[in-house]
Amino acid sequence: MSNPIPNRLSGALRSPITFSVLAGVVIGALFLIGTGADPIAAYEAVLTGSLGADGIGSTLTTGTSVLGLGLALAIPLRAGLINLGGDGQMVLGGITAAVTGLYSPLPAPLTVVLALLAGMAAGAAYAALAALCENHLGVPLLVCSLLLSYPAVSLASYLARYPLKEPGSSLPQTRSMPEGVELPAFGDSTVTFGLVLVVVAAAAYWFTDRRTAFGYEIRMTGLNARFSAYAGVERRGLTLKLMSVSGALAGLVGAIGVLSFPFRFVDGSLTGPGYTWTGLTAALLAAAAPLGTVVASFFFAVLQVGGLAMERTTEVPRELTQVLQAIVIVFLAARIRFPRRRSRARREASAEPKAAEPKVEEAV
To answer: What distance in Å separates the CA atoms of residue 219 and residue 77, rounded to the nearest whole number?
Structure first.
C-alpha cells in the first residue's frame, strides 16, 4: 500500500495553485531584472519586512481583515455564488459598531460584545437584501451585491463627516470610542482579539464544510447546481443563508476595525486598503476551500505588508506585489482551463475512429 503522505505532497506540488504561485514569483523576478533591481534582495525585503520581528504584527493585523473578507466571500463562492458587496457590508458593520459603541449605556465589556454583534447583524441584513433582490426580482447576485455597496459606503461617509464627526477635527472621522470600549490587544502590538475571532470563524467554516450535511449541500451546489436542485436543495433558501453568513463576517471585519486602533470609524480606512478584492483573490486562489483560504489570505497579507518594506529598503515600487497577485490569478485560470481542453481533445480524437468504422463496413 502506498504511503498517503508522499502522495499528498506530490499532489500539492503538482497542483494548479502551486504552479500559479511559482509562476508569479518567477515572472516577478523577471520584471525586477528588467528594471535593474536585484530580485533576491527584493524578495528578501518582502519576507523580512512582513515576517520579521518588526513586521509580523502588521502582517497579522492586515491578515485579520484579509482573512475575514476572504472567508466572507469564500462561503457563498463555495456554492457558486459571487458576493461583490464586501465593501458595503464591511463599512456598514463598522459604522454600526461605532454608533453602538458611542451610545450604548452598558458597561465597556458588554458594549464591545454588543458592538460586534450589531456590526455582524448590519452586514448580514445588507447582504440578505442582495439575496432577496436575486430571489424575488431576478437581479443577478453579482450585480446587486456590487451596486448595493455604494449607498452603504456613502451613508457611512455622511455619518462620519456630519452627525458623528469629532468636534474640532479636520479629518472625516467619528468621535473616539469611550474608555474601555476596544478589543484586547496582544501585548504592545496592534494585533487584537479580532484575529482570534476570525480564526474561530475559519475553524467553524472548515467544520461545516467537511463534517455537516449543510456543507455537503454547499459543495454539491457549487459543483453542479442542477444536480443539487434535483436532489432537493432549495436554491433560494441556500442563497439567503449563505449571503447572510457572508455579510455577517464582512460586518465583523468592519466592527473589528472600529474597535481596534485608532478606536473610531475613519472614512475610507476600511475600503482604502482593498481588503475586499484581496480577500476575493484569496478565495479564488483557494477555490473557496477553508484551509486554502486561510493560507492564501496569509500569503497576500505577506505580499501587502512586505511590499511596503520592499519599497522602503530597495526602492522597488510596492505595486509589484499587486502585479504578482494578478499574475497568480491569470496563471491559475489558465492552468485550470487548459487541461480541460486537452482532455476534451483526447476524447474527441479517441471517438473519431469509432465513428469511422461503420462507414468502412458500409462501403465494403
So the answer is: 10
Please check whether residue 246 is in contact with residue 83, taking contact to mean a CB–CB distance below 8 angstroms: yes
Angle of helix 290-314 relative to helix 39-51, nearest 10 degrees? 120
* Cα angle 34-38-44, degrees, rounded to a multiple of 5: 135
Please give the backbone phi and psi of residue 174, each rounded to the nearest 5 degrees, phi first.
-80, 175
The owner of cell 478606536 is 263
For the record, the C-alpha cell of 220 comes out as 454539491
**262 prior amide bond cis, ω within 30:** yes
- 13-67 confidence digits (pLDDT tens): 566 777 778 888 888 888 888 878 888 988 898 899 999 988 999 999 999 999 9
**Contact yes or no for 46/307 (Cβ under 8 A):** yes
Task: Tell me which DSSP letter residue 3 carries.
Answer: -
Q: What percent of the chain has pLDDT over 90?
A: 64
Residue type, 156: A
Cα–Cα distance for residue pair 362/251, rounded to 1 Å: 70
Burial of 25 (0-12, 13-18, 19+ CB in 10 A): middle
Separation CA 126–CA 118 (nearest Å): 12
Per-residue pLDDT, 31: 83
- Assessment of whether the complete model's pTM goes beyond 0.70: yes
Helix (H, G, I), strand (E, B) or coil at 326: helix
The CA distance from 31 to 37, in Å, is 9
Write out pLDDT tens, residues 161-177.
999 999 988 899 999 99
pLDDT in tens, 203-247: 999 999 999 999 999 999 999 999 998 988 999 999 999 999 999
User: Coil, strand, or helix at residue 192?
Assistant: strand
Residue 347 burial by Cβ neighbours in a 10 Å radius (0-12, 13-18, 19+): exposed
**C-alpha of 344 from chain center:** 32
